[in-house]
Amino acid sequence: MTRPAPLLAAVGLAALLLAGCGSTDASSAGSPVAQGTASGSSSGSAAAGPVPTADVPACPQPTGSGSLAGGLPRQSLPCLDGSGDVDLAALRGPLVLNVWASWCPPCRAELPALAEVARSAGDRVAFLGIDVVDDAAAATALMQQLKVPYPSVADEQGATRGPLRWVGPPVTYFVAADGRIAGEHRGQITSAAVLRGLIEKYLGVTV
Predict the structure, then answer these.
(1) Tell me, what DSSP letter sits at residue 186?
(2) What is the pLDDT of residue 117?
């Protein structure tokens, strides 16, 4: 029997994401991501929004307005806590933006380091996750299990993949105070010390 085209497309995207999940670590300032995201104006929101829960941190309020050259794309995504949508383009830093998924082993492995640094950073650096092509309940359960202290938005269709130019998770972006993407790290962040070094390198903040 011939498979419907939407199913084939979904299978293809899932295979691509799985291939990128174990990608080699890399980091670069002034990357193509930092130069090209302003052109990614497509809107992406989850097809079936997350179930509201008080056990997951609420998403941040906008700290800027409008798209910014070299900044995050204009895409509205629902917060995993069910409280509403977040326009990525309206966010400003210092911000650590982590693309992840509960089905991705390197993502699961790096979450404790991200959580540790987020707790020690306090209000000096904000943290936000983008949970991609995932089940919201599974993602929420993992955040609760690891006591992740920062929120995530849900990108169930992988709509941020084009504008942010990620192939598969994990990828971490470092957004400066003016909203520019100052740098990125592709692949697993292997320790809290590595993340602290990246934050100091790209955002100029010691945590």
Answers:
(1) E
(2) 98
DSSP 37: G
Closest CA to 70 of 200, 185, 164, 187: 164
Contacts of 13 (CB under 8 A, 6+ apart): 133, 158
For residue 172 the two structure tokens come to: 């971490």
Indicate the pTM of the whole model: 0.75
For the 5-203 domain, the top CATH level (class) is: alpha beta
Q: Which residues contact 192 (CB under 8 A, 6 or more apart)?
A: 113, 116, 117
Question: Going edge to edge, which strands form the sheet with 152-155?
Answer: 26-29, 181-186, 171-175, 95-100, 126-132, 152-155
Quickly list H helices, the chain. Answer: 5-21, 32-36, 105-121, 136-146, 161-164, 192-203
Query: What are 15-45's pLDDT values in tens digits?
Result: 444 445 744 443 333 333 333 333 333 333 3
